[in-house]
Design goal:
The chain is of the alpha+beta class and 58 residues long. The protein has a single domain (3-56), classed as Orthogonal Bundle (Arc Repressor Mutant, subunit A), CATH 1.10.10. The chain is 53% helix and 19% strand. It contains three helices and three strands; from the N terminus they run E-H-H-E-E-H. The protein has a three-stranded antiparallel beta sheet. A hairpin with a 2-residue loop joins strand 2 and strand 3 (39-43). It is globular. This is Prophage CP4-57 regulatory protein (AlpA). It holds the Pfam family Phage_AlpA.
């Protein structure tokens, strides 16, 4: 399992951090993991699973 940083997620999905946070709140994007007091990450497989249907529907 690999954990992606905020920067890596932003580069992968091409959305701003604010938009990613809005989608998380709405339940349409994988939830972040609190790694420490000032550090968050996302499970890479969850982000890729979210991205896959978008790639297939193009």
């Amino acid at each position: 399992m690999r954990i992606l940083s905020k920067k890596q997620v932003k580069e992968l999905v091409l959305y701003s951090p604010q938009h990613i946070a809005r989608m998380e709140k709405a339940g349409t994007f994988p939830k972040r993991i609190q790694l420490g007091p000032n550090r968050v990450g996302w499970v890479e497989d969850e982000v890729l699973d979210w991205l896959q249907p978008r790639l297939e529907s193009r």
